[in-house]
Specification:
Elements lengths: L40 H16 L7 H8 L4 E3 L10 H5 L7 H26 L8 H26 L3 H4 L24 H17 L14 H14 L3 H12 L25 E5 L15 H4 L10 E3 L1 H7 L11 E2 L19 E2 L15 E5 H15 L2 H18 L12 H12 L5 H7 L4 E2 L14 E2 L12 H6 L9
Antiparallel strand pairs: 1-3, 2-6, 4-5, 7-8
Length: about 500
């Protein structure tokens, strides 16, 4: 992986301890720390903070990895076809190419940077090079590095490989990298099943160290966030028993995390570390790299007065949410600030199609909006889906209770009856609740469902990808051409 091997720890690290929850103590460092320089607990922590920074930056969760699954689904679409700076439409149109630096090369490199930095840190810790009397704190750093490595591999597999459930993971995934290697290293692709197993090994390994905090640690992984992410992984594998067990553990968190109330729901977006936020990356207008920036995930959802407003809600989604005019989630859809300039896409003028989940900390600048990776509502919906698929009276009752926790929060007079419980109904609620949070396309693919973008105001450019089935080879992004050229062992995805 010639293009992704990085041996130096990145600048812009936070000085502080993740295990003490000191994320907000922003003190950027411009020093560059080599792996050999990691000898103390403080240096190990700085290295870990650097890994978090990479994961939060552009080409990873700072933009592509958040909106990718939305613009490939039915609920969110590109507003304009790709022009200067318009990087969203190639995903939406399913025509992204292997040499696309913004949408492919950097999107591949950034998670691998997380993986390789994590490997360097883990090797220093496991070799005994880090000298400290605080074994618990060091194990906490190790656990977070393992979990971040697992998350990065999971994300790469989701984008660059076919769904696990298509063939039980027998198709090609991405290369698994669990140790530092020489620049001449030329790995082959592992299977999807092997990738998922490594993700599980990393996340369960993090939990088995028994060092992750059980308290809220804003901006950092803790016991609850790792369990929640692992529940998601198992759900993607259709291992519903394990997905449900972990989801239940997270839901029974002793009140540390709670669902938004009905009244809170319209007001929490853009605020730091809400009651539902199990894990989110913290941003300011200067950290990291100028916030999410003009091209960041929050900006692509901004209304038409912003330069980067690449994504809008589809008519299909507005109609879905419109099944209940009193659903509190209507408050997150907004009309344009300048209606006279709201001309694209054709037919959408006058509709509240701009998603306001990312208003920014002051409500007027999306660039400093935090990025929530997983929140408690998703865990409830994960539990509802897993329990339903397992079946049996007890599981079905639990599934219904979890689903209604979300449905009745949206409208207290509404609930789903026992006779109405179905996978379709659960997935419908996921659409309503998690729109704009990076789930829709993955939810369809892992459940063997086609995505259909045929109604409303979808752009003519999507016609060649109006219907995408889970077996469509375009589901997996192409491997970067630079990787193919540099490594004879790297096999390209069919397109």
């Amino acid at each position: 992986m010639k293009r992704t091997l990085i041996y130096m720890f990145a600048a812009m690290s936070l000085v502080g301890s993740s295990c003490s929850g000191d994320w907000l103590n922003l003190n950027p460092s411009t020093s560059v720390t080599t792996p050999q320089a990691i000898r103390t607990l403080e240096e190990a922590q700085i290295a870990l903070n650097g890994i978090y920074r990479i994961a939060a930056s552009h080409s990873y969760y700072g933009d592509n990895y958040l909106y990718y699954a939305d613009c490939r689904g039915e609920d969110v679409q590109a507003r304009v076809s790709k022009g200067a700076g318009k990087r969203v439409s190639p995903y939406y149109e399913f025509n992204v190419t292997a040499d696309d630096a913004l949408n492919i090369t950097r999107v591949w490199n950034q998670p691998y940077s997380v993986i390789h930095q994590a490997n360097s840190l883990l090797e220093r810790i496991e070799s005994g090079a880090v000298v400290t009397d605080d074994a618990v704190a060091l194990n906490c750093i190790k656990a977070e590095a393992l979990a971040l490595r697992g998350l990065a591999l999971f994300d790469l597999t989701r984008l660059f490989a076919m769904p696990y459930t298509l063939n039980n993971g027998t198709s090609l995934g991405v290369p698994i990298e669990i140790k530092t290697t020489l620049p001449t290293h030329q790995p082959a692709r592992n299977t999807v099943a092997e990738c998922y197993q490594q993700v599980i090994d990393d996340m369960t390994g993090a939990l088995k160290l028994s060092a992750l905090s059980a308290d809220k640690k804003n901006g950092y992984l803790n016991v609850w966030s790792v369990k929640a992410l692992l529940s998601r992984v198992y759900l993607y594998m259709n291992d519903n028993e394990k997905a449900l067990a972990l989801a239940k553990e997270v839901m029974n968190n002793g009140g540390l995390y709670q669902l938004f109330t009905h009244d809170e729901h319209p007001t929490v977006w853009g605020k730091d570390f809400s009651s539902e936020s199990l894990f989110e990356f913290y941003y300011t207008l200067s950290e990291p790299d100028g916030g999410t920036g003009g091209e960041g995930a929050p900006m692509v959802y901004a209304d038409n007065v912003k330069d980067w407003n690449n994504l809008v809600l589809t008519k299909a989604f507005l109609d879905l949410l419109g099944e209940d005019p009193d659903d509190v989630r209507h408050s997150l859809n907004r009309l344009p600030e300048k209606p006279e300039e709201d001309i694209l896409p054709e037919g959408s003028k006058g509709y509240p199609k701009y998603l306001n989940k990312y208003p920014g900390k002051t409500g007027d600048n999306p660039q400093d909006n935090d990025i929530c990776i997983i929140r408690l509502s998703e865990v409830y919906l994960n539990a509802a889906e897993a329990a339903f698929k397992l079946g049996g009276a007890e599981n079905l009752k639990f599934s219904l209770d979890c689903l209604n926790a979300i449905v009745s929060r949206a409208n207290p007079v509404k609930s789903v009856k026992e006779t109405e419980l179905s996978l379709e109904r659960i997935l419908k609620e996921r659409c309503k609740e998690l729109v704009g949070e990076g789930h829709a396309f993955f939810d369809a693919m892992r459940n063997g469902l086609s995505v259909s973008r045929t109604g409303g105001w979808h752009l003519p450019s999507v016609a060649a990808a109006a219907v995408i089935s889970p077996s469509d080879p375009r589901v997996a992004l192409p491997i970067p051409q630079a990787e193919i050229d540099a490594n004879p062992n790297m096999v390209q995805n069919p397109h």
